[in-house]
Amino acid sequence: MGISLWDSYPPKVSDDQLQYLAQTVKDWTIFNGLTVRPNPSIVSEESNPNHVLATNAPVTLYPSPFPKQCFEQAEDLQKVYNELYAAIATDEEWLGEVMKELVEVDDFLANLWKIHLQVKEEGYVQDLSLGMFRSDYMLHVPDDSSSPSLKQVEFNTISSSFGGLAVRVADLHRELATYPDPTHSISYPPHPLFNTATSASITSGGYPPTNEAVDTLASALITAHQSYRDSRTSPPLPQCILFLVQDNERNLFDQMALSQHIRTTNREIPTFRIPTSKILSQTSIPASSENPSRPLIYTHPANPNARYEVTVVYFRALYAPTEYDTPAAWTARHHLERSAAIKCPSILLHLSGSKKVQQVLTSTDPSHLERFLPKTSKETLDSLRASFAPQYSMSEGPDSEGVRIALDPDLAQKHVLKPQREGGGNNIYRSNIPTFLKGISEKEYKQYILMELIQPPSKARNVALRSDGQIVSGDVISELGIFGTCLWRSKVGSQEKNILQNRMGGYLLRTKARDSDEGGVAAGFSSLDSLILY
Ligand code: ADP
Ligand code: MG
Ligand code: MG
After folding, report:
1. Which end of the chain is more exposed for a tag (fewer CB within 10 A), N or C?
2. In the CATH hierarchy, which fold is given to the domain comprising 390-453?
3. How far is the C-alpha of 345 from the C-alpha of 215, rounded, in Å?
4. Mean pLDDT throughout 273-288?
């Protein structure tokens, strides 16, 4: 896109027009469920004692321009990435090697690995695994003259969220771009990027491409449910899918988009939401003398006679150490892992998404990609490798490249230090890195990996409507996520796997103020966005 287009996007509007547009978006979001429960720091308990309120999710008022070629590259890579992470989760020995040094210093990972070993000892009773993934990228433009390339920020293997709301943002922006309004009092004002809006085919620009995230994610749950082998409970029970959610989840409407899609496309599959604190009281596993196949039985809280055999547990919780604040939470994770329900994800798949694994994958000596993707063409592997940003181990001693860069205030300036955590707000940036490292022992360095900062385009601008109604405009950075799913059969201890379904579909764009290092919508940094391909 030429410089002039960046300079003129989003189109200039008067204050009155902006207020009108914001009000239109506020109303649209509530009407269409592009919503979140309010943050208690914004809406106090006293003013919302019955917890009835919802507000708009943070959204941009305009879609962000995104290079079509980079978008398509991300789409093309998704199924390869799906297979890569399925292969890693299947290779317990390799993953165990990577985990070995981490479990010495990271209690959270150590506890997860311990549960895996306990269940392995007892014997896993489910050989299907489901991955619902999101691969996240930023555009990398090291200097103004270079054309943007696509660099992966991270790959998520647990609780990959916002597919449900992202679909609605694309719908919102498409409606605003194409509203039949010659005076542009409600549709966007004219801009060259919107010119093709009425005539364009969906992929050729003008307005956000169709977003298939909900269908992709819901279909994965349906396929897993249908692939589940009945464990012959006696008497036979109806089957259900469980959405495992956090106790005070504010992003429930995103999750409900998936359960509602399952209900409307497959009326015979019940789905239930269960908060983590209720796992041990609302689910049970029969004694092995009664049924050695360890079915997970869900008893509905409103009706003790309503019992179901759980086919799939979809984790939208239990990815952060803070969620394991009681021993019961660890017992609950172990309970689910040893059950016959298909886990999305299993502990091995959860751990495969560690930042450490992503760092190890970037190494070329040895290259692990050929091992995990033996049938993939060299050209595709090269394209995969081209999406990696440089990353360094922090476990190879004071003379290693990673530690040297991290401790040097100048070199650290272009890097981010990442612990093995999810959900945003955990990283250490730039000049804070050396200071931070000086405050911990050298032994603890290996909890982290070091990654070069991706350098996004400098001219992008947008306007966001935050959940508290504030309108903020300015320079922005966008992060693209592509959704993908994979269902496969494998046995722990054998590296063989049989992929039943591998699918790509749907995207998420999150846009944040340029001066914020962190991203994350739930963590309060970003707004949901969609894109116009150019
Ligand atoms: P999490 O699993 O907590 O989401 P991420 O690796 O996605 O961890 O990091 C959180 C945020 O930090 C990202 O959304 C992005 O805004 C920023 N970030 C992470 N890695 C990089 C990088 N290499 N370059 C620039 N920004 C990054
Ligand atoms: Mg993550
Ligand atoms: Mg992230």
Report:
1. N
2. Dna Ligase; domain 1 (3.30.1490)
3. 19
4. 97
